[in-house]
């Protein structure tokens, strides 16, 4: 099929490349001329495992193209996907101006029947507004359908998630666009949920909020574990074997961050409020998440006492493993909080250092994780990068002025760390 993807961010670019990989012809459109020029030259603006090869392969096969022209994209396509940012506003609601802007531009250039698909994460009832907007601004009164098709990919696993999705959700008012949408997704072999637009939009917000709730739940349990001497990893493992609960998303730590969960949670609370429901359960999810970080900072203070002029080494800046994304990263939040207290920082991240430099200055960026501890009063682990398990612990103990490790992601085993001579403090796990 001929597809147009408007927006070449994490979702748009990766989805576009995966559509091309299964044989569709895809044109990715972005109004950022510098970005499009880079993409045309084969440069990938984000780090996402497997993406670079995927883009290069499909560009060479002439199934994937880049352009700055919405008209070119819409003219040559049967289906037009909107995958532009929907950033949060200070009151928690979603800024839908990019979606609205693109809907108007599509309306302006549309010359025949098109399926317009909203892939951006939007509050329930946005589809109605997109339809209204296109109808209002259409230059030529041609037929069209609006479809909601939320994306569930995780950063760091975007290609794998897109190639092997758990499910595909298609929300539509009429049956007309459904056959074409099924054709787009059939090659991926996932279950396809066909529903109405409002339900499709809600599936996205309700899913992400539920996952955030699961993380806050285990983080709250970790507090009880610390108070009682139980071990949250063992509690989570025991809980996770119940198929109704499942073992994923039960890792206690510094809480969730990133460009999705915090934003989607706020947006869901806000839209619920506008619809007349006070979603207090989700407000608690937010509160537990904030308190988890407070508690970790307190743990550092209790151990090191006065933080001013202490030096801490921080491993991890990305909001999670396998990504260079630092948006709303708990690790960056932690660094900024420590800096405010006069702590000097030596930091390292396997992939996110460059992006971190834009939001975290006045720290020493260290290239090798094994050099971070040099002259530090303690080491902090803030992101669950798997390579941190390979940290040279003997060297770290020698480089640290005191052998103290605060592990905000439960990367190491407490018994082993104690055996190695560390004062080791993690989340919800007792010392032996
Ligand atoms: C999330 C959803 O998983 C995805 O379906 C949606 O499309 C976008 O939002 P993403 O933001 O890429 O994806 O990250 P995810 O892997 O879900 O992790 C989010 C945050 O939760 C990270 O900060 C991570 O460290 C934290 N987390 C995750 C935990 O603290 N504990 C866990 O058990 C799992």
3D architecture notes:
An eight-stranded mixed beta sheet has the order 3-2-1-4-5-6-7-8, with helices on both faces. It folds into two domains: 2-195, Rossmann fold (3-Layer(aba) Sandwich), CATH 3.40.50; 211-425, Rossmann fold (3-Layer(aba) Sandwich), CATH 3.40.50. It has 432 residues and is of the alpha/beta class. 43% of the residues lie in helices and 14% in strands. Helix 1 (10-21) crosses helix 3, helix 9 packs across helix 11 and helix 11 (261-274) packs antiparallel against helix 12. The protein has 16 helices and 14 strands. It binds uridine-5'-diphosphate-xylopyranose. The site of uridine-5'-diphosphate-xylopyranose (UDX) has 20 residues, from helix 9.
List the keywords.
432 residues, alpha/beta, Rossmann fold, 2 domains, eight-stranded mixed beta sheet, six-stranded parallel beta sheet, 16 helices, 14% strand, binds uridine-5'-diphosphate-xylopyranose
In short:
This protein is α/β, with parallel strands linked by helices. Helix content is 43%, strand content 14%.
The CATH class of the largest domain, by name, is Alpha Beta
Give the number of domains. 2
What is the structural class?
Answer: alpha/beta
| The CATH architecture of the largest domain | 3-Layer(aba) Sandwich
Shape: elongated
Overall strand count: 14
Strand content: 5-15%
Q: pLDDT below 50 for ≥5 consecutive residues: which ranges?
A: none
Order of helices and strands: EHEHHEHEHEHEHEHEHHHHEHEHEEHEHE
Q: CATH homologous superfamily of the largest domain - what is it?
A: NAD(P)-binding Rossmann-like Domain
Mean pLDDT: 97
What hetero molecules are bound to the protein chains? uridine-5'-diphosphate-xylopyranose
The profile of the biggest β sheet is: 8 strands, mixed
Per the CATH scheme, the topology name of the largest domain is Rossmann fold
Number of helices: 16
Query: Nearest-angstrom radius of gyration?
Result: 23 Å
Approximately how much helix is present in the residues? 40-55%
How far is the N terminus from the C terminus? 60 Å
In the sheet with the most strands, the strands line up as: 3-2-1-4-5-6-7-8
């Amino acid at each position: 099929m001929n597809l147009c993807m408007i927006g070449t961010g994490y979702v748009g670019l990766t989805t576009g490349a995966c559509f091309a990989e299964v044989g569709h012809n895809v044109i990715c459109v972005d109004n950022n001329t510098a970005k499009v020029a880079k993409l045309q030259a084969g440069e990938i603006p984000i780090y996402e495992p497997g993406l670079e090869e995927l883009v290069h392969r499909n560009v060479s096969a002439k199934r994937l193209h880049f352009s700055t022209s919405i008209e070119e994209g819409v003219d040559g396509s049967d289906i037009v996907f909107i995958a532009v940012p929907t950033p949060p506003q200070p009151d928690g609601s979603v800024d839908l101006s990019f979606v609205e802007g693109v809907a108007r531009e599509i309306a302006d250039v549309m010359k025949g029947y098109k399926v317009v698909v909203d892939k951006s994460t939007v509050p329930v009832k946005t589809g109605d507004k997109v339809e209204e907007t296109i109808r209002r601004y259409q230059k030529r009164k041609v037929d069209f359908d609006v479809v909601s098709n939320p994306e569930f990919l995780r950063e760091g696993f975007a290609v794998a998630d897109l190639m092997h999705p758990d499910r595909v959700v298609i929300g539509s008012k009429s049956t007309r666009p459904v056959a074409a949408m099924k054709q787009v997704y059939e090659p991926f072999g996932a279950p396809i949920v066909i529903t109405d637009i409002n339900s499709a939009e809600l599936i996205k917000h309700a899913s992400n909020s539920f996952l955030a709730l699961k993380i806050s739940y285990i983080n709250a349990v970790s507090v009880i574990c610390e108070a009682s001497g139980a071990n949250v990893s063992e509690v989570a493992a025991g809980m996770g074997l119940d198929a109704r609960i499942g073992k994923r998303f039960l890792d206690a730590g510094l809480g969730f961050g990133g460009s999705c969960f915090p934003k989607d949670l706020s947006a869901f609370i806000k839209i619920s409020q506008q619809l007349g429901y006070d979603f207090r359960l989700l407000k608690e999810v937010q509160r537990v998440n904030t308190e988890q970080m407070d508690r970790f900072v307190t743990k550092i203070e209790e151990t090191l006492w006065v933080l001013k002029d202490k030096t801490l080494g921080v491993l991890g800046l990305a909001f999670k493993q396998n990504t260079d994304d630092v948006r709303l990263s708990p690790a960056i939040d932690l660094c900024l909080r420590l800096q405010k207290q006069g702590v000097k920082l030596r930091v390292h991240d396997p992939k996110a250092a460059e992006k971190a430099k834009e939001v975290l200055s006045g720290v020493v960026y260290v290239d090798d994780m094994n050099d971070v501890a040099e002259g530090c009063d303690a080491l902090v682990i803030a992101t669950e990068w798997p390579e941190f398990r390979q940290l040279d612990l003997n060297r770290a103990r020698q480089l640290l002025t005191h052998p103290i490790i605060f592990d905000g992601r439960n990367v190491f085993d407490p018994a082993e760390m104690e055996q190695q001579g560390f004062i080791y403090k993690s989340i919800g796990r007792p010392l032996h």
